[in-house]
Design goal:
The chain is built from 7 helices and 6 strands; from the N terminus they run ααββαααβαββαβ. The chain is α+β, with helices and mostly antiparallel strands. The protein has a 4-stranded antiparallel β-sheet with strand order 4-5-3-6.
């Protein structure tokens, strides 16, 4: 794991490293920030002092790094729930084919509170959108009256979730 390797270097050396942006504006992350991200992927509530010990930084330095990663949009720290346990009985992935500007449709979907995930794709669909709803009537309303009503939506195909077997956010860092 990154943490063990990173901890072997001196704290001063690690903390003095500054992250820059590459040519497309994406932050370039150093080994310490990657190790912090891995620590938080394992446990988003892990105390900064424990993270600091693992990566060789002070609690204050970890707090500063985490805030910078949040501000840059590199990561989010959120509570992930099982939708069924909090009143949302229906989930679906909706494949959408678009005529014209795909980005404008993606932006409109992003603004819908029921839409949790929007990705523009290559292949059978132009956009995939994950929807979380209270029940089948709510899902029908979102698809029929809101998504299909967007100018430029040519067709939709819905994939209703019967059972979620795996959902993880622990893909690590590279």
């Amino acid at each position: 794991m990154h943490s063990e390797h990173v901890a072997s270097r001196s704290a001063d050396q690690k903390d003095s490293s500054r992250e820059s942006r590459n040519g497309n504006g994406t932050p370039q992350l150093d080994a310490v920030s990657l190790a912090i991200i891995e620590q938080l992927q394992e446990d988003g509530r892990r105390p900064y002092a424990a993270i600091g010990k693992a990566v060789g930084l002070s609690e204050a330095a970890v707090r500063q790094r985490v805030q910078k990663l949040l501000d840059q949009g590199v990561m989010q720290i959120v509570a992930v729930t099982d939708p069924l346990t909090v009143g949302f009985r229906r989930q679906a992935m909706v494949g959408i084919n678009v005529e014209g500007d795909v980005e404008s449709i993606a932006d409109a979907l992003t603004a819908m509170s029921e839409v949790e995930y929007v990705v523009m794709t290559a292949g059978s669909f132009d956009i995939l959108a994950e929807i979380v709803c209270e029940d089948d009537d709510h899902l029908l309303d979102v698809i029929n009256k809101r998504i299909r009503a967007l100018p430029g939506v040519r067709s939709t195909e819905s994939f209703v979730y019967l059972k979620l077997k795996k959902q993880t956010y622990m893909w690590g860092t590279r």
